[in-house]
Design a protein that fits this description.
Length: 405
């Protein structure tokens, strides 16, 4: 049994770090606020009997030795948030993994495999425009050119790492090889489990996020002196592309496409914009369908901008392949859910998660817990104490079963 009171207390204690006026949480990567959260989680890990280290990119790693010389079971999630996000996204997964290990220790249950609990750096991508920095490093896929990406204030990822005391020159050392599997618990961030009235479910696969940045350059001119038929207005062209993106995405069963940021210049009330930039996030659990939607959006954008004499460039910010969860791990999670008397619900994840980076490295599994009203990335994000406990019990049982296999 897990200690649900301890887990619940830690969820709320951790959420006070980076708390916003309306009870949300803002913790961007490589900031003093996130550093404070890292130190708090390090304390929890040490209380659970874990040996704690920080790797070259700043992932917090707690290790519990196994009784045999075997590959490690890797558990974890992330601590960073979107702007004014919720207290459960990411953090619940890290804290649940710690609780599972601490409960095993307290109940004198010794595993054959070592367990590593990890709090990944920057899953959300809120600061530098691309996410999963920590899991990319663990997978061995973080590139040195990635370190030159800059935040809104012009600070590079490389320099941000240095400021927080990490070692970007040694990113290859963050790669993990001796791993049996990766298991993560996360809030669903949707309404499937709520609709089915069950607290916990098993994830079948993770939709791959594709992030694109569209840059449109027209001609900035006087808003009053330039006739409508003589304008090269990139904002109008952008609005047409954005509208068509929604229409195209709706043709697909599981695809989604979202414009999350937009900016224009020069930004005067009486000036026709000269340039516009916006991002589109495209996802589907099937890579070929996601890529087909991408092509349709790009083709439409090329047609509209050519007609309006607007210069168009499109940059890939992130392209992550969808990941199917291991059948073996799924079956074990199902058994652990059924052991508690709950109906077994299987569902895909539309949101991306750190486990996606391990597609070609080692098996991945995920447990979802119910999200109230499906709200996430929002201060109103909420999972009940009872549902958090059900998820933690499921992870505990699953880890014990997988350790024996």
């Amino acid at each position: 049994m897990v200690n649900s009171n301890r887990l619940w207390s830690r969820i709320h204690e951790l959420s006070s770090i980076g708390q916003t006026p309306d009870n949300g949480v803002t913790r961007f990567s490589y900031t003093d606020v996130e550093h404070e959260a890292n130190e708090q989680v390090k304390k929890y890990m040490e209380e659970a009997g874990l040996e704690v280290t920080f790797d070259a990119v700043g992932n917090v790693i707690g290790t519990l030795p196994g009784s045999k010389d075997l590959p490690a079971i890797l558990l974890g999630s992330h601590l960073d948030t979107v702007p004014n996000g919720g207290k459960f996204d990411g953090s619940l997964g890290v804290l649940t993994a710690i609780e599972v290990v601490q409960s095993l220790q307290e109940q004198n249950i010794h595993l054959n495999h070592p367990v590593k609990v990890i709090a990944f750096k920057d899953e959300e991508g809120s600061r530098f425009g691309f996410g999963m920095i920590g899991s990319l490093a663990v997978a061995g896929n973080l590139q040195k050119e990635d370190l030159q990406r800059k935040d809104a204030n012009g600070v590079s990822l490389h320099d941000a790492m240095i400021k927080q005391g990490y070692s970007p020159e040694n990113i290859l050392e963050a790669r993990m090889d001796d791993v049996k599997l990766y298991l993560e618990l996360h809030i669903e961030q949707g309404k499937v489990l709520e609709k089915e009235n069950v607290p916990v479910g098993v994830v079948t696969g993770i939709a791959g996020p594709l992030w694109l940045k569209f840059s449109l350059i027209g001609q900035a001119e006087h808003a009053g002196a330039t006739p409508m038929n003589q304008r090269k207005d990139p904002l109008v062209a952008a609005s047409l592309i954005i509208s068509e993106t929604e229409k195209l995405a709706k043709k697909y069963e599981n695809a989604v496409a979202t414009v999350g940021t937009i900016s224009l210049a020069p930004g005067g009330v009486n000036v026709i914009p000269g340039s516009v930039e916006f991002t589109i996030d495209i996802r589907d659990v099937k890579e070929e369908l996601r890529d087909q939607l991408e092509k349709e959006i790009k083709d439409y954008a090329a047609t509209i901008t050519a007609e309006r004499e607007i210069d168009l460039s499109i940059e890939d910010l992130q392209r992550v392949a969808p990941v199917l969860c291991s059948n073996e791990i799924q079956n074990t999670i199902k058994e652990s859910i059924a052991d508690q008397g709950y109906p077994v619900i299987s569902l895909p994840s539309g949101a991306g998660h750190d486990g996606m980076q391990f597609k070609d490295r080692f098996p991945v599994g995920m447990i979802f817990v119910r999200s109230q009203h499906g709200i996430s990335h929002n201060p109103q994000e909420f999972t009940t104490k009872e549902d958090a406990k059900a998820g933690a019990e499921t992870m505990l049982k699953t880890v014990c079963k997988l350790d024996k296999e």
